Amino acid sequence: MGGQDNGKKSEDQCALCNATANSRCGGCNKVSYCTKEHQKKHWKIHKGECCAWKVCESPLLGRYLSAVRDIKAGEVILRERPLLLTPPKVTPPICLGCYREFNTDPEEQVEREYVEPRPCPKCGWPMCQQDECIESPEHAAECRIAEKRGGAVIRDFNVDHPVYRSIGVLRVLGLKDRYPEKYQKFLNLQSHVEKQRVEAARAADSSSLHSSAAALGRFGGEYPEHQSEVERDTNVTAKVVRGFFQRKDVDEETILNLISIMETNGHEIPIPNTRGHINKRLIGVYNNTSFLEHNCKPNCVKTFDMADKALVIRSAVPIKKGTNLSISYVDPLWGTNDRCNFLQMTKYFTCKCTRCCDPTELGAHVSSLRCQSLKCCEKTGFDSLVIPEDPFDAEREWVCITCKETHTVGFVSSIVSKIGKDMEELHEKFGDIPAMEEFVKKSSKFLSPNHFYLLEMKVELAQLYGRTPDEPLMSLAPRKLLRKIQLCEELLIVFSKIYPGYNRLRGLIIYELQAAACMLSKLKFAAGEMPLEKHLEELMQCGKWMTEVIKVLGWEPENSIEKQRADGAAQDLQILKNMVLSIQGDSNDGSQSSSTNMDDLDNSPDRESFIEEVF
Ligand SMILES: C[S@@+](CC[C@H](N)C(=O)[O-])C[C@H]1O[C@@H](n2cnc3c(N)ncnc32)[C@H](O)[C@@H]1O
Fold this sequence. Notes:
Blueprint: E1 23-24, E2 32-33, H1 36-46, E3 53-58, E4 62-67, E5 76-80, E6 84-86, E7 118-119, E8 126-127, H2 131-134, H3 137-149, H4 167-178, H5 180-187, H6 193-205, H7 227-242, H8 252-265, E9 267-272, E10 278-285, E11 293-294, E12 300-305, E13 310-315, E14 326-327, H9 336-347, H10 354-357, E15 369-370, H11 374-380, E16 385-388, E17 398-400, E18 406-407, H12 409-427, H13 433-443, H14 452-464, E19 467-468, E20 471-472, H15 478-498, H16 504-526, H17 532-553, H18 561-590, H19 600-603, H20 605-614
Parallel strand pairs: 11-14
Antiparallel strand pairs: 1-2, 3-4, 5-13, 6-10, 7-8, 9-10, 12-13, 15-16, 16-17, 17-18, 19-20
Helix pairs in contact: 3-4, 4-5, 6-7, 7-8, 12-13, 13-14, 14-15, 15-16, 16-17, 16-18, 17-18
Residues 60-64, 189-190, 192, 264-265, 290-291, 293-294, 347-349, 351, 353 line the site of S-adenosylmethionine (SAM).
InterPro entries: SET_dom, SET_dom_sf, SET_SmydA-8, Znf_MYND
Domain MYND-type: 14-50
Region (Disordered): 584-615
C-alpha cells in the first residue's frame, strides 16, 4: 500500500520473468504473473507498490484517486504517516512535543491536567517537563531554527498566542533543510494562493456575504474567520518567519504558498484524553491521501492511528473498479448551502457532486422546508416540501414540489435564521430532553423532517435517551425506548441516502439502536407480550448490529468515545450470546429446539450478506 505503481511491464508479461502471464495481482490489478510462485517471489519488490488505487487528473478535480479493482466495504485502501504534523494555527501555548496545554493553576487541576512549562534548553521555546518532548523529532525542526534566534517569550499561558501560527511553516522549512525528498512531496501538493488573494480582495469589500441568500445556512454567511483576516494573519506569519526567525532564504511568496498547501491539504487529527474527550487537535499533512477528492456522499471514510498519527482510508461501501475515491471535507449532515459555502471559502471550489446538483439532496431533503400554503396543506396533509429552484443560484426562488407556489430567498432565510436562533439558545440546555423534543415538535412545522437543524437535534436525542444518570437504559420507560428506536431508524434512513456504509456516525447510531431494541424486546418477552421465536429473532438482529458496531467503531482511536462503544458492544454481544443460549436451553428442555445460532455472528457469510443488504 505504498506509492504508485510505475507500471513498467505490460499487463500480459510476468512482472518477474517477462514470460506470458495469465493472472493479475488481486491487490492492485496492475501487474501480472505467469505462476503463483513468481508472484510470491516478486512480492518483496511489489508490496511497496501494491495498492487498490491510482492517481488520475481531470480539469474539474485536478488530481484524484480512482479504484483499479473492485473494493469490498471496509477494506483499508490507504495507510499513510504524515509528511508534516503541526499544532493548529490558533492555539494557546502548548508543549511542542506532546501538544498538551500548559496549566499551572492548582484550582483547575480537577478539570485540566497540571502541565508546567520550562524553556527548552536549546531554543528557549516553552516545553513541558518531559525530556522526551524536548528531544522529540517533531520539535527538532523549530528548535534548530529558533536556537539561532532564541525562543519566543510567552507571559500569558492562558490565551491563544500568535507565534504558534509559525510552527507549521518552521516545520516545513525543517523538511527543506533535512528531508528534501519529503519537502518536494509537500511542494507537489495543491496550493490555492492565487485564489486566496482574489477571495480576500472580494471579501474585503463584499456585502454579498451578508445578503439573505448567504443566510440560508447555519452560519448565516458569517464564517469564523473572514477571508481578509486570513490574508492578514498569513502575511504576518510570513514576516515573523523571515524577520523574527531569520529565514531570509525563503521569500514571502514561498511562505504564503506553504501556508496555502497546509490549509488545502491539512487534516485535523482529534486526540482523545483518557476519558474520551477530545482535548487536543493537531494538523497532519499527508502525501497520497491528499489526492482524495471531496464528495458530499463519500464512498470512503478516514480514521487516524494515534500510535504514529497515520491516516487510514477505508472503503465505506463496495466500490467498483474505475470509480473515483472520495471523502467528505465537510460534515455530511450540513445542508447544501453550508457545505458549498464552506468548501468555497476554505478549499476554493464549487462542489458539483450529484447531491449538490439535486435540489432534494438525493431525496434526503436536508435543506427543504415544509410548504405553508393552506391549499397545499389541505391537499397533502401538511406534507409537501419546498426546495430551491436552482441549488447553485442562491438568489433564485424556492418552490413547493406539489403546489408549485414559489417563495423568495428572503422568506426562506427568515425562517431558517429564526429557527437557527432558537437552536443556539437551546445549546445552553443541551441534555434537557423535554426542551429538545419541544424544539423538534415546533420546528417540524416549518422544516423538512430531515432538515439539518432537526438532524442535529435527532442525533443528540438518539444518543441521550437512556444515557442520563437519572434515567439509564435499564429504567427507561417503553414509550421512551420506542422513541429512541424511532429516532435511530429515521436517522439511518437519511444516512443511507447521503452518508452510506461504514462510518462512525452510523456506528454510533446503530449502537444506540441495538441497545434500545434489545431492552425493549427483553421487556416484552418478560411481560409475555412476545413469543419466544420472535424474541430470538430480534435478539439475533441486535447481535448483527453489535457486530457492525464492533467492527466500525473498533477502527477509532484508543480511549475515544467510539472505541469505548465498540468495547461495550463486544461485552454486550457476549452477554447476548449467553442469554440466547440459556433461553434456547430452557426451551429445549421443554419442547422443540430453536434454529437461532448466535455463533453465526462471528464470521458467517450471513453477516456479509446482512451488511450488503443494509447498504
Ligand atoms: C486536498 S486537495 C485534493 C487534490 C487536488 N485535486 C490536487 O490536484 O492535488 C483539495 C483540492 O482539490 C480540489 N477538489 C477536491 N474535490 C473537489 C471536487 N469535488 N470538485 C472540484 N474540486 C475539488 C479543490 O481544488 C480542492 O481545494
